[in-house]
Design goal:
Blueprint: E1 8-10, E2 17-22, H1 38-41, H2 48-58, E3 65-70, H3 80-89, E4 92-98, H4 106-109, E5 117-121, H5 127-134, H6 138-152, E6 156-162, H7 173-180, E7 184-189, H8 195-198, H9 211-227, E8 231-235, E9 238-239, H10 248-251, E10 253-257, E11 262-264, E12 277-280, E13 283-286, H11 292-295, H12 305-310, E14 326-327, E15 333-336
Parallel strand pairs: 2-3, 2-10, 3-4, 4-5, 5-6, 6-7, 7-8
Antiparallel strand pairs: 1-15, 8-15, 9-14, 10-11, 11-12, 12-13
Helix pairs in contact: 2-3, 7-9
Length: about 350
C-alpha cells in the first residue's frame, strides 16, 4: 500500500549557519523576475582574493556552514572552481545556484566530490512556459546541461519560482524531474524585489499568487514529487492558527552577501539600505541605526514584521481588522521526503 507524503515544517535550529554569497551581479540572462538590484547590490565582480577573504569571515572551523554561491550567474566568474575548492577547505558545504548555462566549462573543472549540490533554475515544464520568463532557448540549454551533470554524477537540485505566470503549470514539473533524474526540488515563492517590485508582467497577470491558490496547488504538487522519489522543499508562507511565529534572524544565522559589501540577514530587505552588517577592508562590521535587525524582535498579529513593512499588500484583513493569514518568516520551510 502506498503512503501519502506529509509536509514537515523545518524549524530553525539555534546555531544553524547559511551563507548566501553573491560573488557578482552580472548575468548572461535577463529574467523578468530577477531580484538583483544594481543600485542596491552593486555591479562588481569580486576578485578571487576578495572572495576568499570574505569566506574566511563567515567560516567556522568547528562547525560546517552551508554556502550557496550566487550571482547574477556565478558560473560567469572565471575563478569559480577555485572558489569552490577553497570553500570546501574552510568546511563549507557548497551549493552553486546556476541558470543552467554552466559557463567556463564548470563541469570539466570541478568533480562531483568537490561540490555538494549543483542547482538549476527552471520556471516552466517546457520552453513555452519557461522561456518567456527566463529567455529564448533557455529551457533547452538548461535541461541539456542538467542531463550532462546528472550523467557525470553531480548531486542535482532544481528551483522553480512560483508566480502568477507559471503556477498553473507547476503540476507538470514532477514527471519532468523524474525523467531528468533530479532528486531534490525547491519550490520558491516570487519575492517583490528587483524587477517584480517595479513591474507587472504584461499588465495583465499579477506576480504574486493568492493564499488559496498557493495552498491548493503547492502541497499537492510536492506530494506528487515525493511519491516519485524526489525530496521537496518549499516555503511555509502561511502559519496555521496554532503555530508560533519565529524569525530566523532571532534564532539561526543567515547572511546574504553582495559585492558592494552589504550583508543582510533578511532577504526581504535587500532592496533597501537597512542591512545589518557591512564588509569594509575585509572586516565584518555591525551597523548602528534603524536597520533590519532592530525590527526582528517585534511581535505583530500579521506574523512577519518585515513583510508587513515592505510588502503590506500581501496581507488581507477581515472586517474586524484581524489578518486573514499570518505570514511566516520567509526562510521557514516545509519539506516532503520521498
Amino acid at each position: 500500500m502506498s503512503t501519502t507524503p506529509h509536509a514537515r515544517t523545518v524549524g530553525f535550529q539555534a546555531g544553524e549557519r547559511n551563507v548566501f554569497f553573491h560573488i557578482l551581479t552580472a548575468c548572461n540572462l535577463a529574467c523578468r523576475h530577477c531580484y538583483i538590484n544594481p543600485d542596491q547590490h552593486g555591479t562588481a565582480t569580486l576578485s578571487l582574493e576578495t572572495v576568499l577573504s570574505w569566506l574566511k569571515l563567515f567560516a567556522r572551523p568547528e562547525q560546517q556552514t552551508n554556502l550557496i554561491l550566487l550571482g547574477g550567474e556565478p558560473t560567469m566568474h572565471r575563478d569559480l572552481a577555485a572558489i569552490i575548492r577553497a570553500a570546501k577547505s574552510l568546511r563549507y558545504a557548497v551549493t552553486v545556484d546556476s541558470n543552467g548555462y554552466l559557463l567556463h566549462d564548470l563541469l570539466d573543472k570541478v568533480s562531483p566530490q568537490e561540490l555538494d549540490y549543483l542547482s538549476f533554475s527552471l520556471d516552466g515544464p517546457d520552453p513555452v512556459i519557461n522561456d518567456p520568463i527566463r529567455g529564448e532557448g533557455v529551457f533547452n540549454v538548461c535541461t541539456q546541461n542538467l542531463k550532462k551533470a546528472v550523467a557525470l554524477g553531480f548531486n542535482i537540485s532544481l528551483i522553480y519560482t512560483v508566480s502568477g505566470l507559471n503556477i498553473n503549470h507547476l503540476h507538470r514539473m514532477p514527471p519532468l524531474l523524474e525523467e531528468l533524474g533530479v532528486r531534490r526540488f525547491f519550490i520558491q515563492v516570487i519575492g517583490l524585489r528587483g524587477n517584480p517590485a517595479n513591474t507587472q508582467p504584461g499588465g495583465e497577470v499579477n506576480w504574486q499568487v493568492d493564499p488559496d491558490q498557493w495552498l491548493s496547488v503547492v502541497p499537492q504538487v510536492a506530494a506528487d514529487a515525493a511519491r516519485r522519489g524526489i525530496h521537496v522543499t518549499y516555503p511555509k508562507v502561511y502559519l496555521e492558527p496554532e503555530e508560533v511565529f519565529q524569525c530566523a534572524g532571532m534564532v539561526a544565522e543567515n547572511f546574504f552577501i553582495f559585492p558592494n559589501g552589504r550583508v543582510y540577514q533578511c532577504p526581504l530587505c535587500e532592496d533597501h539600505a537597512i542591512h545589518s552588517y557591512e564588509i569594509k577592508e575585509n572586516r565584518l562590521l555591525h551597523r548602528e541605526g534603524l536597520n533590519e535587525d532592530r525590527f526582528f524582535p517585534l511581535s505583530i498579529p500579521e506574523g512577519c514584521v518585515m513583510n508587513k513593512l515592505l510588502q503590506p499588500d500581501n496581507i488581507g484583513y477581515a472586517k474586524d481588522g484581524s489578518p486573514l493569514h499570518r505570514i511566516s518568516c520567509c526562510l521557514l520551510k516545509q519539506e516532503m521526503l520521498p
